[in-house]
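**User:** My hope is that you can spare some time for a protein that puzzles me. As I understand it, each token names a local backbone shape. I would be glad if you read both lines and explained how they fit together. The protein I mean follows directly.
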Amino acid sequence: MPRSVDGTRRKNRRIKILKIAKGYFGRRSTNFRAAKDAVAKALSYAYRDRRQKKREFRSLWITRISALCRDNGITYSRLIEGMNKANIAINRKALSNMAIEDPQAFAAVIEKAKKAAAVKA
């Protein structure tokens, strides 16, 4: 029976892993066994954090909106309640950008929300 040597499939798989691990610290970038574990962990973190990023940005937008709401004498929850009653459909990302880039328009939205919350309360 002929002697078998490392095949191209095995070599290509190892090269692929080491290519992904390029730039990692120490032997994690050069040693296949260490690189394999590091890449597996990195890919699992990347998968998890693509979902967490959405949560973190929404939280950031809400924090920004809340801070500027309090400057205008209303809480975040009352603003959202008033916007719903006034049928103002602006998502939190756009509302956050509006609060930063166009404070007058944001103040106008707050006033409409205050009136709607007071009228239908």
